[in-house]
TrEMBL record:
SMART domains: AAA (SM00382). It is found in: Cell membrane. Belongs to the ABC transporter superfamily. Its main location: membrane. This is L-cystine ABC transporter ATP-binding protein YecC. GO terms for molecular function: ABC-type amino acid transporter activity; ATP binding; ATP hydrolysis activity. It comes from Streptomyces sulfonofaciens. One of its GO terms (cellular component) is plasma membrane.
Length: 271
């Protein structure tokens, strides 16, 4: 294994904890000389809703992109469901994961982006059925049935045949949420999903997410500046600054009596 791809701090015999869905262990990520994540440790238990808050540029999106394997850590390890995300065991050795392993682990993870990222050339229904058919191997009928249920859930049951550009931003984002859920992920990553929306469209999207938080057992890792929403849905809030979690706790504690000066400053600027 080459030195470049060999992560430091990798724990070859990790403790088994069935309830831990996501675990970052001393994850460092640099862009050039910019250390974006600095030996970051945190974990998310199965079924919990965790919100990341912190200033712009502090590395929140990078955390989610690492989980989606859109980028990889310089050192440290990330586990999903007890499996290393970017490494796998082969002949008793931990080696950089092959595409197949990454695809398998990533099936557990769905992401919704700030900019929706729908497939512009596909109608709404096909946006949702595409991955379940090609990645999960569902039949077209099965995938369409599930897609229609999800579109009903996000209040767009009547827009199956629209193209993304025929929808408002809020509607597009609700399609993107349905698309992520169609893969039946264990965890949903939400990256400032209402930041690109006109103000009057924000509430509809947040209502859909509140519904998902209340009625499903899906784990949520959420980056948001919507503090009322964060307070409603979160089991835990992590304040993130300069590549590390500087404070975490229940939403009550974090929003009413944060201990850290940086948290107080940040909250007074956004609330
Ligand atoms: N692909 C990239 N190339 C170079 N720098 C990047 C890249 N992606 C992110 N960064 C830098 O990493 C830092 C953290 O970015 P990001 O994770 O997007 O922060 P946040 O989501 O908290 O605003 C920023 O300084 C940003 O400029
Ligand atoms: Mg971001």
């Amino acid at each position: 294994m080459s030195a470049d791809t060999s992560p430091k701090n990798l724990d070859a015999n990790p403790p088994v904890d069935g309830s831990e869905l996501i675990r970052f262990d001393k994850v460092t990520k640099r862009f050039g000389s910019n250390v974006v994540l600095d030996e970051l440790d945190f974990s998310v238990a199965s079924g919990k809703h965790v919100t990341l808050i912190g200033p712009s540029g502090s590395g929140k999106t990078t955390i989610l992109r690492l989980l989606m394997t859109l980028t990889s850590p310089d050192s440290g390890s990330i586990k999903v469901n007890g499996d290393y995300l970017t490494h796998e065991q082969r002949n008793g050795k931990l080696v950089p994961a092959g595409d197949k392993h990454i695809r398998e682990v990533r099936k557990n993870i769905g992401m919704v982006f700030q900019q929706f990222n729908l497939f512009p050339n596909m109608k709404v229904l096909r946006n949702i059925t595409e991955a379940p058919v090609t990645v999960l191997g569902l039949s077209k009928d099965e995938a369409e049935e599930r897609a229609r249920e999800l579109l009903d859930m996000v209040g767009l049951g009547d827009r199956c045949d629209a193209y993304p550009t025929q929808l408002s931003g809020g509607q597009q984002q609700r399609v993107a949420i349905a698309r992520a859920l169609a893969m039946r992920p264990q965890v949903l990553l939400l990256d400032e999903v209402t930041s690109a929306l006109d103000p009057e469209l924000v509430a509809g999207v947040l209502d859909v997410l509140r519904d998902i938080a209340r009625t499903t057992d899906i784990t949520m890792l959420c980056v948001t500046h919507e503090m009322n929403f964060a307070r409603d849905i979160s089991d835990r809030v992590l304040m993130f600054d300069a590549g590390r979690v500087i404070e975490s706790g229940s939403p009550d504690k974090m929003f009413t009596e944060p201990e850290h000066e940086r948290t107080r400053e940040f909250l007074s600027a956004v609330l």
